[in-house]
Automatic annotation (TrEMBL):
UniProt-recorded name of the protein: bis(5'-nucleosyl)-tetraphosphatase (symmetrical)
NCBIfam families, alphabetized: bis(5'-nucleosyl)-tetraphosphatase (symmetrical) YqeK
Domain of life: Bacteria
Domain HD: 9-119
Signal peptide feature range: none
Assigned EC number: 3.6.1.41
Molecular functions per Gene Ontology: bis(5'-nucleosyl)-tetraphosphatase (symmetrical) activity; metal ion binding; nucleotide binding
Classification via SUPFAM superfamilies: HD-domain/PDEase-like (SSF109604)
InterPro entries from the UniProt entry: Diverse_Catalytic_Enzymes, HD/PDEase_dom, HD_domain, YqeK
Catalysis: reaction(s): P(1),P(4)-bis(5'-adenosyl) tetraphosphate + H2O = 2 ADP + 2 H(+)
Organism: Deinococcus irradiatisoli
A Pfam family matched in the record: HD
Length: 178
């Protein structure tokens, strides 16, 4: 793992893994799997676009336009090739770029940890909220991403939109927009 990413990225990866584990433990979830998924989440982040497109063939136009966003799905493909079969970990790795599917709390831990790890210097509020209210922290993380992109006219990935709408359907976000 350490060999696959740049040194600075590896520091980020360790912070994400540790934070994902702490968030999982605070919410009575599987802390070991959250840590493992955190360690593995960015293994494809430093691959060239051509490799990302090969490992994660585009499913929607935005995938071809922004191959970097494929690094979650590409990482899953690599892990499967290496023999990983734990669907909870695979899903958390795959979905860390576009947002967790419903009823995947370990994915939520990794997603929230990735956007709020201390090295980013932002989202301290999300990090603190995640310790007591994971769903609320996820809602805040996903909605700020969606609103940020929409305000700039940048298309939102369909998987991110469905994560957003699922949070609305569960009452974690107000309905009516996006
Ligand atoms: Fe990533
Ligand atoms: Fe990351």
């Amino acid at each position: 793992m350490q060999l696959m990413v740049k040194a600075r990225r590896y520091d980020h990866v360790l912070r994400v893994a540790e934070l994902a584990r702490a968030i999982a433990a605070a919410n009575h979830l599987d802390a070991d799997r959250a840590y493992l998924a955190g360690i593995l989440h960015d293994i494809a982040r430093d691959l060239p676009d051509s490799e990302l497109l090969r490992l994660a063939p585009p499913e929607v136009p935005i995938d071809s336009a922004h191959p970097l966003a494929l690094h979650g799905r590409a990482a899953r493909t690599l892990l499967e090739r290496w023999g990983y079969r734990d669907e909870v970990v695979l899903r958390a790795v795959e979905d860390h770029t576009t947002g967790p599917r419903s009823h995947c709390p370990v994915s939520a831990c990794v997603y929230v940890a990735d956007v709020s790890e201390p090295g980013r210097g932002v989202n301290e509020d999300i990090r603190e909220l995640a310790m007591v209210d994971l769903e609320g922290a996820l809602a805040q993380a996903i909605s700020s991403k969606v609103h940020y992109l929409q305000a700039r006219g940048i298309p939102v990935h369909p998987r991110t939109l469905s994560a957003y709408r699922a949070l609305q359907a569960r009452g974690a976000l107000p309905c009516g927009d996006a």
